[in-house]
């Protein structure tokens, strides 16, 4: 029996309509257009990107279904992506894909395929991010009836922004003539005067690091792998200093040095002295890895090739010789001029060699092919005494106290050719002894007999830099991290060759020669042993004892010969089996060896 509700209590009300109740929404006209919303997971609610689905199996083993192919083709996220040009993909490509057919196990094969997917994705993203590189290398454009060589530095500085105008300055110094070097990231400047003056400073902010006088002549200066250490070639030896001017080390094995150069990826300080010796010093270990006599006499022209690390040395006979620290003879020689050379440089990409001689010609050579004919020729009124090439391919040369720049390295021209005039022309207050382009800046540094000039050359520097390679704005922590990574990735000096791709290949003829030499061991006879016993006193020995000693020696030599043949046999069988496995053949039969001659012969049964 049901219990009646108590008196005075109101009847139960109808429950409120739910917002997503479809039955009530259909009956009510106000909420008739509402639809239930499917809730997503919390980590997917605000995600607007694309999900990357990895394919764990190859297409040959499990083909895609037609419906899935159609869905991927009509995916709106794929349709929104812009097409990447093939030339951009080729620019950022990591190379050809690794064939997975040679991988034995399934696990490593899938791992390699997964790695190729990641590399393809990284290549595509790198090509897409090129849109962010908005900085472009601009050049001066002259009006009708004018040429850019007429523009002076004061006019250029007055028409650029304040930050660029501050990079044009001049230093008047008393201890010249001077040599100069920019650091690898282009932020710091090092000056060395012939009469002992050494100065290092941040040329952008004009903050002085150190300045001192060594009280003897200075031939050349050079930054090391970090902008806190540098080398100075003084009168007798080479000294190392830190950023504050404190002497760190004195290398007495490098004597009477005229020119210094540094290989940043090998940590090698290259030096050429007045006696004709070329030396390589490993600054990470403090060891001399190479010291050869070139036979060229006093070395005044020394530059390294950035692409392979080969050292180019110019001589008074017009010949450029290329050297490696592990080869005592030059790797190659190139006859550039019929007269003595006055200047030489290599472009930052390692593709072209630029030389100048007393014949008043500047020639551009293809350093990769080493042809006997130059790619371009500049005819001058006077011999060029300094040369340099910028990151964008501009050529700068000096003739006495005049400096000229040309926009294209391969265009040719010169002051002797009226049809092709220089891009910029600048007159200095004294003879130019040093000339270098600043990396990642439109600046050209000139060191003269009376000081230093910083000249604006629009369009000479690379506007977009890689912060993981060279960062002009790096902090002290980033510098320390970069130094550690550079030491871990150091290239040994044995890999310095003309063609750096030779290291990745297999020397097939030499390998075949080794296999043939080991095969010949099977057809060798045991070496004949001749033993002459010592003459002993009477009663100290006899014929029986002498013959026993001879037999012991023969057995020992025979065992050594058998062990050597067995070892050679094992190695050849292993090489043959590996080659047959790759070709898909059956297991080869081991070749006959000299061991068969030592096996006991089977006895014949004679009938009586």
TrEMBL record:
For this UniProt record, give its keywords in alphabetical order, as a comma-separated list.
Nucleus, Repeat, rRNA processing, WD repeat
Mind listing the GO biological process terms from this record?
Answer: maturation of SSU-rRNA from tricistronic rRNA transcript (SSU-rRNA, 5.8S rRNA, LSU-rRNA)
Q: Which residues form the signal peptide?
A: none
Return any one Pfam family short name.
WD40
Q: Where are the WD repeats?
A: 334-368
Q: What are the subcellular locations of this protein?
A: Nucleus, Nucleolus
From the record, give the transmembrane residue ranges: none
- Per UniProt, the ranges with Basic and acidic residues bias are 69-81, 578-599
Q: Which GO terms describe its cellular component?
A: 90S preribosome; small-subunit processome
**What positions does the domain BING4 C-terminal occupy?**
422-500
Specify residue ranges for compositional bias: Basic residues.
1-16
Instruction: Quote the PROSITE patterns the UniProt record gives.
Output: WD_REPEATS_1 (PS00678), WD_REPEATS_2 (PS50082), WD_REPEATS_REGION (PS50294)
Here the segments flagged for biased composition (Low complexity) are 22-33
Ranges for region Disordered: 1-33, 55-86, 532-551, 567-608
What's the name of the protein?
A: WD repeat-containing protein 46
Q: What organism is the protein native to? A: Drosophila madeirensis (Fruit fly)
């Amino acid at each position: 029996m049901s219990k009646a509700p108590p008196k005075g209590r109101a009847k139960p009300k109808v429950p409120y309509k739910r917002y997503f109740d479809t039955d009530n929404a259909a009956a009510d006209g106000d909420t008739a257009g509402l639809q239930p919303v499917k809730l997503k997971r919390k980590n997917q609610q605000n995600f607007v990107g694309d999900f990357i689905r990895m394919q764990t199996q190859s297409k040959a083993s499990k083909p895609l279904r037609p419906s899935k192919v159609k869905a991927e083709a009509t995916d709106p996220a794929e349709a929104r992506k812009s097409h990447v040009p093939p030339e951009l993909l080729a620019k950022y490509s990591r190379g050809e894909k690794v064939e997975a057919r040679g991988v034995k196990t399934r696990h490593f094969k899938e791992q390699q395929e997964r790695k190729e997917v990641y590399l393809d994705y990284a290549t595509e993203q790198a090509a897409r991010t090129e849109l962010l590189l908005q900085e472009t290398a601009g050049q001066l454009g002259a009006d009708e009836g004018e040429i850019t060589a007429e523009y002076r530095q004061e006019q250029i500085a007055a028409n650029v922004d304040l930050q660029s105008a501050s990079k044009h300055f001049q230093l008047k110094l008393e201890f010249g003539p001077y040599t100069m070097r920019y650091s690898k990231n282009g932020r710091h400047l090092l000056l060395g005067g012939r009469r002992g003056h050494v100065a290092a400073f941040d040329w952008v902010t004009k903050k002085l690091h150190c300045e001192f006088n060594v009280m003897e002549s200075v031939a050349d200066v050079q930054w090391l792998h970090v902008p806190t250490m540098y080398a100075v070639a003084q009168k007798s030896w080479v000294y190392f200093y830190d950023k504050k001017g404190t002497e760190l080390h004195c290398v007495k094995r490098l004597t009477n040095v005229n020119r210094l150069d540094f290989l940043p990826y090998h940590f090698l300080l290259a030096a050429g002295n007045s006696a004709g010796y070329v030396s390589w010093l490993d600054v990470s270990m403090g060891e001399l890895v190479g010291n050869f006599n070139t036979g060229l006499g006093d070395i005044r022209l020394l530059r390294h090739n950035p692409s392979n690390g080969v050292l180019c040395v110019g001589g008074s006979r017009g010949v450029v010789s290329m050297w490696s620290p592990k080869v005592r003879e030059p790797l190659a020689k190139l006859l550039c001029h019929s007269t003595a050379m006055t200047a030489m440089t290599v472009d930052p990409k390692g593709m072209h060699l630029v030389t100048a001689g007393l014949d008043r010609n500047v020639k551009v050579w293809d350093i990769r092919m080493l042809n006997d004919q130059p790619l371009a020729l500049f005819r001058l009124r006077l011999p060029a005494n300094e040369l340099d090439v910028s990151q964008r391919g501009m050529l700068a040369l000096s003739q006495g106290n005049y400096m000229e720049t040309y926009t294209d390295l391969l265009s040719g021209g010169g002051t002797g050719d009226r049809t092709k005039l220089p891009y910029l022309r600048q007159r200095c207050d004294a003879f130019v002894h040093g000339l270098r382009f600043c990396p990642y800046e439109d600046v050209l540094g000139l060191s003269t007999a009376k000081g230093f000039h910083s000249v604006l050359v629009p369009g000479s520097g690379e506007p977009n830099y890689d912060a993981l390679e060279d960062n002009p704005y790096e902090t002290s922590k980033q510098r320390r991290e970069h130094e550690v990574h550079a030491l871990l990735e150091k290239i040994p000096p044995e890999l310095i060759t003309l063609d750096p791709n030779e290291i990745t290949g297999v020397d097939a003829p030499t390998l075949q020669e080794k296999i043939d030499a080991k095969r010949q061991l099977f057809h060798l006879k045991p070496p004949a042993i001749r033993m002459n016993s010592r003459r002993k006193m009477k009663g100290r020995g006899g014929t029986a004892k002498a013959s026993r000693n001879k037999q012991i020696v023969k057995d020992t030599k025979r065992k050594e010969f058998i062990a050597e043949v067995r070892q050679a046999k094992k190695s050849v069988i292993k090489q043959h089996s590996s080659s047959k496995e790759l070709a898909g053949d059956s297991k080869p039969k081991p070749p006959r060896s000299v061991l068969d001659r030592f096996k006991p012969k089977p006895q014949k049964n004679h009938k009586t």
